[in-house]
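Support request, please re-run this one:
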Amino acid sequence: MTDDGGARAAGNGFPGRLAARVAQRESQIVLGLDPDPSRLWPQAAGAVRAPDAGADAAADAGGTAEPPGGAVGRVIEYVKEHYRETIRISRLARLVGHHPVYLGRLFKQKTGYSIPEYVHRLRIAEARKLLRRTNHKIAYIAQQLGYHDPDAFTGKFKAMVGVTPSEYRSGVREG
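Re-run finished. Output below.
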């Protein structure tokens, strides 16, 4: 139980029902049931609460109030559009006006993932789609998704999916 009286699942910071939906969405993507990486975290932006009246008062007094979706929502949208590029937390922090360490903690609190983990999940979901739909070499796919080292890509893919990219491709085409 937490201070707010709501159960939190698996220590990921989400209330129980949302945590179950998040885990289900993640499982669908990791298992290949939902190959669209843009659908990885549609509910995360909704998990960020809109500012309350106190935040509005702070904005009127010269402070800044977060729009619905807030900093984490803006980071998620940016990452969805730029996951093929090198993404630096310092750049994201400047984009949303927060300190990099604070942004990293806030992102993990709201989504259950660090920013780099979230980027890897998007990239691997896209890699699975490319492996199913194209004949591109694995090194080319890795490069297109922002991995500069094909071995690092293969290691991350195997850690997240359970098989190497070439095993995944073979299994998808045979099955």
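The mean pLDDT is 74. Residues 115-133 form the longest helix (19 residues).
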